[in-house]
Amino acid sequence: MSNNHILFLCTGNYYRSRYAEELFNHQARLEGLNWRAFSRGAAEKGSLDNVGPISKFALQGLQAKSIVAEGAHRYPQPCCLADFDGADLVIALKEAEHRPLVERRFPAVADRVRYWHVHDIDVANPADALAMIDRLMEDLLRTLR
């Protein structure tokens, strides 16, 4: 039986979408759900401020839950149209930030994206942002069960 796939998008595929991907895959595995997540960046390039493969805040948030990040060594990847083809569900982490990027870069599939409202590090403390992702993830998992 093949898995359904969910694509999480943030701007640079460094912090929010990576945390969401790892958290989702951990929870889906625990619950025996037929879903797997992957993540990408909606921007063509990541920020120069993003050092290393994944944000330390994402890793710390996962470690606090005793989750070992499977993709801890994977560097951020920008989204391409084929990523949408491989996804049954697409969630971008902040509508105000990501809708314009998605509509500009991928107008043919922009209507497929669902939006959450999780602020990036420049607006929200990581503890607050990750807690919001945790709550939204619980709602998402509830709908997929």
Helix/strand layout:
Elements: E1 4-10, H1 16-31, E2 35-41, H2 56-64, H3 81-85, E3 89-92, H4 95-105, E4 113-115, H5 126-144
Parallel strand pairs: 1-2, 1-3, 3-4
Helix pairs in contact: 1-2, 1-5
Indicate the CATH topology.
Answer: Rossmann fold
CATH superfamily label: Response regulator
Total beta-strand segments: 4
What fraction strand? 5-15%
Q: Compute the number of structural domains.
A: 1
Assign an overall shape: globular
Helical content (DSSP H or I, runs of 4+): 40-55%
Q: Which second-level CATH architecture applies?
A: 3-Layer(aba) Sandwich
The SS-based structural class is alpha/beta
pLDDT average, as an integer? 93
Major sheet: order of its strands? Answer: 2-1-3-4
Largest sheet: 4 strands, parallel
Residue stretches low in confidence (pLDDT < 50, at least 5 long) are none
Radius of gyration: 14 Å
User: Tally the helices: what do you get?
Assistant: 5
Cα(first) to Cα(last) distance is 16 Å
| Multimeric organization | single chain
The topology string of helices and strands comes to EHEHHEHEH
CATH class annotation: Alpha Beta
